[in-house]
Amino acid sequence: MSAIRRAEGEGQAWLAVGLLTLGIYATVPLARAIQRAVEGAGGRQLFLVAVAVCFATALFLVLRRLRTGEVQTRHRVVWIAIALLYAASAWQLRRAPEEAVHLVEYGALGALAWHALRFRIADAWVFPAAACVGASAGMLDEALQWLTPDRHWDLRDLAINAGAATGIQVALAFGLPEREARAGSGPGRRLAVRFAALAWLLLGASLLNTPPRIARLAETLPGLASVRDRGDLMVEYGFRHGDPEIGSFYSRLELETLRELDLRRAPEAGATLARDGGDEVYKRFLATYNPITDPFLHELRVHLFRRDRYRETALTHRDDPPWLRRDATVAHRENQILERYFGHTLEQSGHGLSGEAREWLAEQHLPDRPYRSPVSRGLITSFGAREVAWGWALGFLVLAGASRTGR
User: Fold this and answer.
1) Where are the alpha helices (DSSP H) in 280-320?
2) I need a surface site. Which of 61, 124, 244, 404 has the fewest CB within 10 A?
3) Residue 258 is part of which domain span?
4) Is 196 a member of any domain?
5) How many domains are there within the chain?
6) Cα–Cα distance measured from residue 209 to residue 20, given in angstroms and rounded to the nearest whole number
7) pTM (two decimals)
């Protein structure tokens, strides 16, 4: 292949990667409209049907192409196994079938990236490099969704995108006759490490884009003010607090901070809750006082809503003792959380329970039943942003060492 033809082939290969990537990104603001159109045409399960057709067609074309003498049965088995893995992943997403489309999009993108990178990497390093290209594109996709109204960033979607791009690399690595030299070369490794560094950079930037950082960025970048005001988040870290008399609950704030804010902000936050704490404006309240703008008031309101709803259902099921006691337990525990950690604000708001109501809940609740409040359960509590930052920095050191090894 002449240098000119090789350059043209590489350019065309990367053009295909770019066009598919842009096509994926272009659907981000249209996704809800597409979803509604598909749902109206026959239901959201049509997404799964379309994904299944794509998988079956791709597998058929690959197996048909693998009909040469050098192809062994194991190559076909690999492709069938990977196709079944993709199908199983799609089935796991059946409750949100539109998400299964990502398996097709990023599987195809991973294959195109592999084809484009083979012009530069002629050994086994092409596979991790292509996987990193697909994963990076998937992270940018999620960032774009975070910036788009009515769309959200989702760590699970990051895993789906990266997994789809990686799965096709496994199929290409073990499902094709030996085309790449399996021994890695220095240039191939260095290029793969650069793509890995890009993916690592984007992953770290996503995992460190916490609500306080979003709030600070919104002050310097006016375009992010709408994201802050909508309360759109990437990732949140927090704490799981245990209380021997209550159970456990999640919070974005440490216990000392909760108590300090409750004492200091009680007059102002209590007045806000008294004025805007009605159930008819509940959603608007949470949007206004969201985890970015006011995590303290946001958490208080959700605990209050949960207490009141379960107290109401307990009262309406007086003729069903098991149901009554189960819901009374939830209401009692949530009220204990409110009184112990948000007590001053609760008192100022006028949303505290009367002595009679508190006594009734205490009598009806199940004292031996363990309780874990689900409020803010989406918080990451096993590690925090500081640990992520250290791991991120360590990862770059490892990548730098890998790039220099064997030069």
Assistant:
1) 282-288, 295-315
2) 244
3) 239-382
4) no
5) 2
6) 27
7) 0.85
Tens of pLDDT, residues 106-147: 999 999 999 999 999 988 999 999 999 999 999 999 999 999
Domain match, 174 and 261 both: no
- For tokens 């890695």, name the residue: 184
Distance from chain centroid for Cα 340: 32
Q: Both tokens of residue 81?
A: 């196994």
Contacts of 175 (CB under 8 A, 6+ apart): 62, 66, 75, 76, 78, 79, 82
Closest-CA residue to 251 (of 342, 387, 376, 345)? 376
Residues 246, 367 share a domain: yes
Q: Is 343 exposed, middle or buried (0-12, 13-18, 19+ CB in 10 A)?
A: middle
- Largest Cα span, the chain: 89
Q: Is residue 251 helix, strand or coil? A: strand
Question: Are 82 and 170 in contact, with CB atoms under 8 Å apart?
Answer: yes
252 and 174, same structural domain? no
Q: Are residues 172 and 57 in the same domain?
A: yes
Distance CA 127, CA 124 (A): 6
